[in-house]
Amino acid sequence: MTTEIVKADEAATVPEPRGLTPHTARRLALAERLLYGAAGTWAAVGPLTDVPWWAHGGVVLTGLASGRRLWKRTSEENGPGLLLSAMRSLPVLGWSGAYTAGLLAPVLEYPNGWPMLGAAAWTAVMVPMAPWTRSRGLQRAIAQMPEYAAAADETTTGEIVPAPTTYEGHLRLMWTTSPSTGETQLINIRQHREGHPDFDAVILAPAGQAVPPSVTQKNVAAVFDVPPATVHLDPVDGYGPGRMALRVTPSEAEEDAQRYGLEQLWHIRVSGPGGMLPGMEMIDHRIDEDRIRILVEADDSAMIALPRKKLARALKVEDPDLVMIETDGMARGVVTIYREHPLINIREATREDLTMGPDGLIRIGLRHDGRPFKMALYSPELGGLTDLAVGAMGSGKSVFLLTVLAAERISGIISLVADAQSGMSLPEAKGRVYHFGAGIAELGATLAAACAVADYREAVSSANGWGSFTLGSPWRLVNVTLDEINMVLGEHALVPAAFRKWVTGMVARLQQTGRKFGFGIRFAGQSIHVTDLGDAEKIRANAKQGLVWMGRVNSTMTQSMAADMVTDGTEIHAIRPFFGNVSDELFAAWDGKDTPPGPVTAGMAWGLQGGRAVLMRVFKALKESKTYPHLISLFESAPTIPGFSPEEHRIFQTAYAEALAAAEAFLAGEDGDGDSDGEGEGGGKKAKRPAAPGKASIPTPPKLLKSEILDVLADGKSRRTREIRSAVGVGTDGGPASGSVDNALSKLFDEGLVIRPGHGIWALAPETPAED
Q1: Integer Cα distance of 621 and 627 in angstroms
Q2: Closest-CA residue to 485 (of 542, 534, 533)
Q3: How far apart are CA 159 and CA 153, in angstroms?
Q4: Residue 525: C-alpha distances to residues 2, 494, 548 (Å)
Q5: How far, in Å, CA of 220 to CA of 249, rounded?
Q6: Handedness of CA 583, 589, 595, 600 (dihedral sign)
Q7: For a Cys staple, 265 with which of 31, 109, 249, 260, CB 3.0–4.6 Å?
Q8: Terminus-to-terminus CA distance in the chain, angstroms?
Q9: Domain co-membership, 369 together with 497
Q10: Helices assigned H by DSSP within 11-161
Q11: Residues with pLDDT less than 70, the chain
């Protein structure tokens, strides 16, 4: 924008007529009504009193002057302006007329009571009407009408300059009444074409001040109620930060649509030979108040392909996050273009949302198009399911898990929860679910106890000839939730490989067979990938049958999860931390300014189900005093915590206590009753397998390396070092290193537990009895 606009005659703006505050209007109306009461009394008795002739003449002349002025206005004005003049002349004309009738009554031989009655009638009409006070409100209403608005510009010397056009006055009124514009003025307004809203102007700050940061593209768009993309703010060449050039062009996109029509515009910019995506044809569209929906079909010789950023560029949408795409992966897709991001505002969950239906589904949030997003707590056909919840800190993962756990309690499902981060991630669940384990050892013990109950159910099912699980007949559904699982199964998890292998084995066991006995499993972490859950194809397949809730994670993770889980061709993009227009950030970088962040996107995620991807957001939960009171109330809306049968309860608690003791001892570097050496390989006696309650069994906790070596030598035979290495798994996946075996043998020799019959040959010391 050039400085030509700025260098025109600049003027300070005189504010438009402002309305009265309610308090001021009431006081003014009261004063006006008291005046009418006094004037009406004088109009009734004044003509009958003996006062000088000039007093009577003044009243009559006042009425004549007012009538002459109104008559002159009829030839100069029309419409609302004339109505305003008539409204203000009415009290004076009526009062003067009643007074004059009283003076003429004796001359015309009218009874004296008629003039008094006329004065009383005038008073009775004027007091409730208060026309002069009401004319102030009428004046403001007229000033705000685009066809009658007017504003007077006045130079600093007091010289009156020609009034701007009515559209200019309307724009100034909108600008001065907006709180985001501060003390700035809108000057040098130039409308592009008459009848079109597009205009150029200059924003002028008070002398010595810069245009405030609140004057942003988004706020200016709100002032004039236009799309943000149609507002352009630029510095003014040759001037400082106290001026900013403004261009508003809301009719540009509308004119394009009117000139071409949406279908022709799509053909020219998208599907035609010179378009961004040739062959992607529009076959139908719907234009709503807040969105445009376009049904697209690929040519017969092509697969559907609708890259989001290319579409945004072709359709001149500055923020690609406002473009949502869903496809069937083959021929058709739906493109939705929103006026503003549809997931900024979202409601809280209700008990009805979280009550599971006969199909096993609950409503966990909303899709971008406003439809409910549903997830299955179990499948009537498959039984228990496997779910994944992935998200960085602040992505809303904990709210998602807590909402699901509240739904399980409301729906009568047993929740076994283990939080590897010492219970810090899900504190609201503690004491509100059947079981809550806080810590890495507790996570392993929770899995072991769940496997023990699954073994019990398997034995009962086998004895009764049951081949599948039926909800509530005879057992409740059990869902195991393992939060922060990446601390155990992640690539850089700080746990021994043997412990990780133990947990992975139990995970595989529950995934492969637990669903037949009513066990589902849910993993949650900041960076977990499907391959972390084991390499077995069955495990990966089970993970794809449930829900993958993928919140804000890094782009590499997004691409990997999409490759694993999405088969319909939907383009999955990383979720940003904050809502906001990317063009705002770009211009802020250009101008060297900071852009205030928009609302956080916590809770927004990709829901991956059945090979499809849907952008959704979990129902809102507000944190107060470091907890979520609404989620707690949802938990407690179900007064009873679902639990196991008495026999299952006994099995679970016994198995959990025994497995927890073994897991804690292992992680502390202990082995059975031996001592710890601080390296995780100490101790003297091998760990005993805890006895199982009833027919159930507890998965064997991992053994320390020295215990495994003692097992190899327990038959009393001597073995070479390479034979011992091979026996304990050196060179196998998850096996120990050769150096670790050598170090363990040296420690056992120092402790007198093994001997060296020859060079590189080892045997169990005679005084050390082997244990079963």
Answers
A1: 10
A2: 533
A3: 9
A4: 55, 15, 12
A5: 12
A6: positive
A7: 260
A8: 89
A9: yes
A10: 22-45, 53-76, 80-108, 113-129, 131-144
A11: 1-23, 25, 48, 53-55, 73-84, 105-115, 136-166, 252-260, 491-492, 528-544, 555-564, 583, 669-704, 733-734, 767-772
Which residue bears the tokens 């376009």?
Answer: 294
Q: For residue 524, what is the domain's CATH number?
A: 3.40.50.300
Tell me, what CATH number does 700's domain have?
1.10.10.10
pTM value > 0.70 = no
Alpha-carbon span 171 to 223, nearest angstrom? 9
Q: How much is the pLDDT for 743? A: 83
Pairing relationship of beta strands 761-764 and 719-720 according to DSSP bridges: antiparallel
Residue 772 CA to residue 516 CA, distance in Å, equals: 34
CA distance 493 to 488: 5
Question: What per-residue confidence (pLDDT) applies to 539?
Answer: 52
pLDDT in tens, 278-313: 999 999 988 888 889 999 999 988 899 999 989 998
Look up the domain containing 314 and give its range: 262-338
Rounded CA separation 543/508 (Å): 11
* Number of domains into which the chain is organized: 5
Pairing of β 478-483 and β 519-525: parallel
Whether 601 and 662 share a structural domain:
no
What pLDDT is attached to residue 339?
86
d(CA 373, CA 629): 23
Q: How big is the chain by its Cα radius of gyration, in Å?
A: 41
Which tens digit of pLDDT belongs to each residue from 676-718?
333 333 333 333 333 322 333 455 566 667 777 888 888 888 8
Are 515 and 602 members of one domain? yes
Last residue of a domain, one of 117, 144, 171: 144
